[in-house]
Amino acid sequence: xxxxxxxxxxxxxxxxxxxxxxxxxxxxxxxxxxxxxxxxxxxxxxxxxxxxxxxxxxxxxxxxxxxxxxxxxxxxxxxxxxxxxxxxxxxxxxxxxxxxxxxxxxxxxxxxxxxxxxxxxxxxxxxxxxxxxxxxxxxxxxxxxxxxxxxxxxxxxxxxxxxxxxxxxxxxxxxxxxxxxxxxxxxxxxxxxxxxxxxxxxxxxxxxxxxxxxxxxxxxxxxxxxxxxxxxxxxxxxxxxxxxxxxxxxxxxxxxxxxxxxxxxxxxxxxxxxxxxxxxxxxxxxxxxxxxxxxxxxxxxxxxxxxxxxxxxxxxxxxxxxxxxxxxxxxxxxxxxxxxxxxxxxxxxxxxxxxxxxxxxxxxxxxxxxxxxxxxxxxxxxxxxxxxxxxxxxxxxxxxxxxxxxxxxxxxxxxxxxxxxxxxxxxxxxxxxxxxxxxxxxxxxxxxxxxxxxxxxxxxxxxxxxxxxxxxxxxxxxxxxxxxxxxxxxxxxxxxxxxxxxxxxxxxxxxxxxxxxxxxxxxxxxxxxxxxxxxxxxxxxxxxxxxxxxxxxxx
Amino acid sequence: xxxxxxxxxxxxxxxxxxxxxxxxxxxxxxxxxxxxxxxxxxxxxxxxxxxxxxxxxxxxxxxxxxxxxxxxxxxxxxxxxxxxxxxxxxxxxxxxxxxxxxxxxxxxxxxxxxxxxxxxxxxxxxxxxxxxxxxxxxxxxxxxxxxxxxxxxxxxxxxxxxxxxxxxxxxxxxxxxxxxxxxxxxxxxxxxxxxxxxxxxxxxxxxxxxxxxxxxxxxxxxxxxxxxxxxxxxxxxxxxxxxxxxxxxxxxxxxxxxxxxxxxxxxxxxxxxxxxxxxxxxxxxxxxxxxxxxxxxxxxxxxxxxxxxxxxxxxxxxxxxxxxxxxxxxxxxxxxxxxxxxxxxxxxxxxxxxxxxxxxxxxxxxxxxxxxxxxxxxxxxxxxxxxxxxxxxxxxxxxxxxxxxxxxxxxxxxxxxxxxxxxxxxxxxxxxxxxxxxxxxxxxxxxxxxxxxxxxxxxxxxxxxxxxxxxxxxxxxxxxxxxxxxxxxxxxxxxxxxxxxxxxxxxxxxxxxxxxxxxxxxxxxxxxxxxxxxxxxxxxxxxxxxxxxxxxxxxxxxxxxxxxxxxxxxxxxxxxxxxxxxxxxxxxxxxxxxxxxxxxxxxxxxxxxxxxxxxxxxxxxxxxxxxxxxxxxxxxxxxxxxxxxxxxxxxxxxxxxx
Lengths: 555, 658
What we know:
The complex is a heterodimer of chains A (about 550) and B (about 650).
Chain A: E1 2-8, E2 12-25, H1 27-36, H2 45-51, H3 57-70, H4 81-89, E3 91-107, E4 111-120, E5 132-133, E6 144-145, E7 153-158, E8 167-171, E9 176-184, E10 189-198, E11 209-210, H5 222-228, E12 239-241, E13 246-249, H6 256-261, E14 263-273, E15 277-291, H7 294-311, H8 318-329, E16 340-341, H9 344-350, H10 355-366, H11 374-377, E17 380-381, E18 396-399, H12 407-415, E19 420-426, H13 433-449, E20 454-459, H14 466-473, E21 478-479, H15 480-484, E22 492-498, E23 504-508, E24 516-517, E25 528-529, E26 533-538, H16 545-551
Parallel strand pairs in A: 13-15, 19-20, 20-21
Antiparallel strand pairs in A: 1-9, 1-15, 2-3, 2-7, 2-8, 3-4, 5-8, 6-7, 9-10, 10-11, 12-13, 14-15, 16-17, 18-26, 19-22, 22-23, 23-26, 24-25
Helix pairs in contact in A: 1-2, 1-4, 2-3, 7-8, 9-10, 12-13, 13-14
Chain B: E1 9-16, E2 21-28, E3 41-43, E4 56-60, H1 65-76, E5 81-85, H2 93-100, E6 104-108, E7 115-119, E8 122-128, E9 131-134, H3 137-154, E10 157-160, E11 169-170, E12 187-190, E13 204-206, E14 219-221, H4 229-238, E15 240-243, E16 250-253, E17 259-261, E18 268-272, H5 275-285, E19 291-298, E20 308-310, E21 324-327, E22 331-332, E23 356-364, E24 373-374, H6 376-412, H7 417-438, H8 446-532, H9 535-573, E25 620-624, E26 627-631, H10 638-648, E27 650-653
Parallel strand pairs in B: 4-5, 5-6, 13-14, 14-15, 21-23, 22-23, 26-27
Antiparallel strand pairs in B: 1-23, 2-19, 2-20, 3-9, 4-7, 6-10, 7-8, 8-9, 10-11, 12-18, 13-16, 15-19, 16-17, 17-18, 24-25, 25-26
Helix pairs in contact in B: 1-2, 6-7, 6-8, 7-8, 8-9
């Protein structure tokens, strides 16, 4: 969530008698202030004498008195904030008195600030009747940086007056000044900056010149600020959920990109920041959003699903459809509302008016190499307890969605009681940290059953860390391109060469590497979160030539 | 004996062949339809019933019209229909109708291996010729897997109904892999060169194409044709070899396993038949067949009216032929007399299925070669005839000219009247002799008579020439006398004129001499005076001297000219007469006449050559490349022609265009 708060700030241009100080390079004072850090951050005679060897006690006391006059330390010698700055920059204020022209600005975010200053020669031309009280009294003792010449830093040390009320001669200014306050809630960072033009004179006269200002921060806690908006700023749009840091919003009215990003931009006429003022016409960008109700979540999930099918048309197996729906909902604000993917027939009915969509869903089920199970054809409720695995037909292993199987359960079924001598995993996507962790778990589980089993991996080239795979399996993997050429398999295969007897294989609708643990460091017996996986046992002659060759003893 | 104009002759010969035997042949007789339909194998279409919401799968391969019609019916009832079609599919209106049905997805593959429909677990294949084989459950499952594999792995394009205008697009990617169909499956796609696998010995076998098997089936169905006759003859010794075009695929019914193999360019669908299916297929293969392969067939035993016979090497079957008419190329006779008996040196064999062969050919008489010219003997006689005619014409023309000259001379010279009468009598006699010779021709007379005629012509030419010479001499003498008289009269006239002019000139000379003398005296006087003259008179005297000198010179020239003229006149007066013959010969004054005068003068007489041989009595004597040809165009001239040809060493022939 981000916002940019803006405000116009009036600039006052006045002539005033003042005591000023310009920050000038004084390394000896910097040295003195740094030396004070060694002695409890106090400027004491020993500190002065250590920094300035040979100085007498009286001389040291005079130096300390001067430092106090400059504001580098207090009466007790404790280093002030200004003294800390001097210690860091070796620049110290050099006081002076006179008539100055000041450009002043005032806002709760920036304080009472001198934007620029100009020395004037004293003149008797002015009469006391022209004098007016100073409306914006600048913060005394604060170092300001000129917005005209950023290298110039100065402070107002005092505004000498007879009656305690500084009087000035007001001048007309053509300056414009705007405050831009950027709030980045996600990054926990906020910065404000001034921009505009100012008519402070320089060598080329009174021409307007751009304001030069380096961003500054107020140090505000932004999420606490957001909480203050729950009943004000956010109320027209939804319900702010402070714990989730998300705005619960109805589905109606959300654009496709807002549905997919789970973020929304709010246009707000008036925003109040406690203690920092009120800002008009604020655009609150990328506000995290989520569904306001289960009905909203269901509609939201289906809208995303429909859009995904439209954006990426193509034939999808029922398993791919279920996986797609899970990808679009799990890990999103929708998940907690348990949205449901309708059964296959209902999806077909919904797509009946769009032939391409209808065929893309119907054909992979109607023309599946083996019948699609009723469980798979049924609805998929995200977040619901996994369905119990059905007995299934011989030679078919089905792991239901979020079935909770451990890797050992799967491996035991795949090995079918055989002790493997060699196993081949043909999977196009053995890449990414999660999949490599899944491979590691698979290999560990296989070797738990057969410690000497050799594990081969054939996988796609793109983005694959072959060395990482070899480190896990102990054997160099083969690339799909060199193995299959252009006829790369779509599905995953796990082929088993037992120590005795003929080899066999499993044709899998999903990858065993997609199983994810709920906690790090899973073992072979750890229950895992699975996507739908159906494995069908195949013989060598049912396999593509390269896989058949491996199973028949080749490489 | 042949008569009339010599022409080419058509002849023929008939050869009987009923006892000839054919080593091997396919023979088609009549066959009875022997199929009443079975439980598994039927003919015609019977739509499978729908089973619930099951999708309908259709293979629209070769001969898939009925399968397509059945798919249309399913689609019309609302079923989801999946169809595999070949590259050419889509143009026919029924194809378009299928894509207009409610829910149809069509995918195009390089080749659809069969025509079939599967609804749930019910599947049927159209195996050809309208025969439909119902598949059992195992076969249906295997067919479905074959379909699914082709659908997802082999499709190149796809189109679906449900849009106003279905459009073909690239086939979408498959959502999963489909396992290959295992070898043990009862339905499986085999390579395009696959053959029936079982043992054919003692089997029932149906081959739609290809070579016959090694082991002899009990009954082999193989397409009748020109090939493999030797092999089929071996198989026919141990079994039947038959054929009937029923559109059926390769099939084998044997103890080792019954199978069916559909045709295909990319692959062949093999189906292992169940026992029940094999029984019905066997019944079909035991049925009567129209074609039968036979060996050692006697031609006379074939049914001329209905039997088709296909012999080895022939592109199509044929029926036996009662009599084959064979046109033999033309034959040229060795001589004109041999024309009626001439035959071809060889005759082509008749077609194997001819029960009799009738050969027909044309005999050409020997003919004079194209480009032959008249023989030299003909030219010699023709030249002699032409010379004969020309010489006679010249003699006649000279005699006619002589008649004209005689009249003219008679009229011009009266002194020659008597001689002219004698010349007339001689001329009349010579013209009578010319007329007599003009009635004869040397070429028709033979060498001896021709020589006599030429001698007589020579004598006639001499007589005519002498007559003309005499007449010219008489004329010449008369003209010379006339010229002498004219020259003498002219001489006398010239002498008389000169004498008369001489007297005048002598008087003119005397006067001139006197004028000259007087002038000379005046000049001397003037010169003397000039010598003594003073300056005043000198100029006048000098001018007078010059004037007198000029007059003296002129007078002197006049006297000399006159003396010359007198000398010339004296010479003319003394000239003597002398006759001068004219420079050109004294010719006649008659106008030139056509044919000129008779030339040449004797003895430069022309020497005509008489050929040694006489011309042939019949025909034309021609010559070509050193050979004489005697050309006759009528059979009646044959005998005379043969004699003349022998005499002249010529070949007796007919005209070129015979």
